[in-house]
Amino acid sequence: MPLTIARSSGQVGRLIQRFRLEQGLTQTQLAQLAGQRQEMISKIETGQGGVKLSTLFDVLAALGLEMTLEPRSQSSTADIEDIF
Q1: What is the pLDDT of residues 62-78, one digit of tens each?
Q2: CATH class of 9-64
Q3: What residue ranges do the domains of the chain occupy?
């Protein structure tokens, strides 16, 4: 799987949505797998604030994803937007 870069909550949310849809899951199904409510999945996918890290990790685990952190590259945010 290619490396995917996200630098904002909105980008993380769009990625989670993309992976959810690729797996053929509804927000409700993902919420059940992650032990969350559908409203929380919607909140994450739309990039809203106030999401606990533990909740985000529950959702990532339910999708079979993990987070990798590394120093930020020198490319601009506009360059990253082109990826999506």
Answers
A1: 999 999 998 988 765 55
A2: mainly alpha
A3: 9-64
Cα gap 32→37, rounded to integer Å: 7
**d(Cα 6, Cα 40) in Å, to the nearest integer?**
19
The span from the CA of 84 to the CA of 77, in Å, is 11
Distance separating alpha carbons of residues 72 and 37, to the nearest angstrom: 32
pLDDT of residue 57: 98
Confidence of residue 36 (pLDDT cuts 50, 70, 90): very high
What percent of the chain stands above pLDDT 90? 75
Dist CA 70 CA 35 (whole Å): 28
